[in-house]
Every structure is written in structure tokens, then in C-alpha cells.
């Protein structure tokens, strides 16, 4: 299985306030903006690319969203690191065979067609990792 860094998700209180740093200082390009109102997601997303690398700025849409809870508990900052895999189902099976646990309720297809699941941070020394694939490609 190939694992390639896909993006880093960063929790912010306000995308509008955060964007100037990524666009003006880091010279990034705003590639996409969307909102996911799916239960258990509830987030505004801004996708910024800088020199071929992708950052997703994540702003909660309500005070009970996972990103709002993250900001309350840990503050703003890196929420997760995402790795693209060739085949999500196979990657999940291979990881499970090695004792890795997943946050099962996070398995989904996002608003842009990306299939994803989060690894339980208990399996990664506390860091939240996303595995994702792009079936439409």
C-alpha cells in the first residue's frame, strides 16, 4: 500500500481571519471553499495550496461540531494529518491486521467525493490521522 501525504487539516475559529496568512505570507492559492453540514462533521472548509502542498482550514459551523470541541479542548492548530492511499478498504484491513483501531463512525465520502476514515488517536500516540482515497480518479 502506498501512503502519500494528502493534506493537513488546521482548526481555526474564523477562516476569514486565517486566510490572509496562508494567501499573503505563504503565497498560497485558495482552491476551494465549501461547507459540510453532515451530522458529525459540521464544518466550513477552505482548501489552500502552496507549492504543491494542501492545507484545509476547518471552521466549525456550530458550537457542537467536532472542530468546535477540538478548539475548546486543545485550541486552534493542527487537527489532523491526512494520507492518501490507493485503496481505502484495503488500507483499513491492513492497518487492522497490525492492531490499528479506527473511529468507525467517521467512515464517509465528503462533499467533494473523497472517501475517508480517521484512525483512533489511541493507536498513534495521540495524533489524529485521516486515511483517504479518491475513487473518482
Question: CATH superfamily assignment?
Answer: 2,3-Dihydroxybiphenyl 1,2-Dioxygenase, domain 1
Largest sheet: 8 strands, mixed
Can you list the strand order of the major beta sheet? 2-3-4-1-5-8-7-6
**Per the principal axes of the C-alpha atoms, what is the gross shape?**
globular
Pfam families: Glyoxalase_4
Organism: Sporosarcina gallistercoris
Family: Belongs to the methylmalonyl-CoA epimerase family.
Keywords: Metal-binding
Write a brief caption for the model.
With 137 residues, the chain is of the alpha+beta class.
How would you describe this structure in keywords?
137 residues, 2,3-Dihydroxybiphenyl 1,2-Dioxygenase, domain 1, 8 strands, 22% helix, metal-binding
Structure report:
- It comes from Sporosarcina gallistercoris.
- It holds the Pfam family Glyoxalase_4.
- InterPro entries: Glyas_Bleomycin-R_OHBP_Dase, MeMalonyl-CoA_epimerase, MMCE/EMCE_epimerase, VOC_core.
- Keywords: Metal-binding.
- 22% of the residues lie in helices and 44% in strands.
- By secondary structure, the protein is α+β, with helices and mostly antiparallel strands.
- The protein has an eight-stranded mixed β-sheet with strand order 2-3-4-1-5-8-7-6.
- The two termini are 17 Å apart.
- The chain is globular and about 45 Å long.
- The chain has one domain: 2,3-Dihydroxybiphenyl 1,2-Dioxygenase, domain 1 (Roll), CATH 3.10.180.10.
Write the layout of secondary structure elements.
Layout: E1 3-11, H1 15-25, E2 29-36, E3 43-50, E4 53-60, H2 66-74, E5 77-85, H3 88-97, E6 102-109, E7 115-119, E8 129-133
InterPro entries: Glyas_Bleomycin-R_OHBP_Dase, MeMalonyl-CoA_epimerase, MMCE/EMCE_epimerase, VOC_core
Family: Belongs to the methylmalonyl-CoA epimerase family.
Pfam families: Glyoxalase_4
Amino acid at each position: 500500500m502506498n501512503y502519500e501525504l494528502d493534506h493537513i487539516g488546521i482548526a481555526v475559529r474564523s477562516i476569514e481571519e486565517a486566510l490572509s496568512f496562508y494567501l499573503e505570507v505563504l503565497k498560497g492559492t485558495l482552491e476551494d471553499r465549501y461547507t459540510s453540514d453532515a451530522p458529525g462533521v459540521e464544518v466550513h472548509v477552505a482548501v489552500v495550496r502552496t507549492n504543491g502542498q494542501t492545507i484545509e482550514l476547518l471552521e466549525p459551523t456550530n458550537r457542537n461540531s467536532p472542530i468546535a470541541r477540538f478548539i475548546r479542548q486543545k485550541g486552534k492548530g493542527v487537527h489532523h494529518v491526512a494520507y492518501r492511499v490507493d485503496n481505502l478498504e484495503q488500507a483499513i484491513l491492513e492497518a487492522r491486521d497490525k492492531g490499528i483501531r479506527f473511529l468507525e463512525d467517521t467512515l464517509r465520502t465528503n462533499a467533494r467525493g473523497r472517501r475517508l476514515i480517521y484512525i483512533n488517536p489511541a493507536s498513534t500516540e495521540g495524533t489524529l490521522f485521516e486515511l483517504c482515497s479518491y475513487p473518482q480518479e
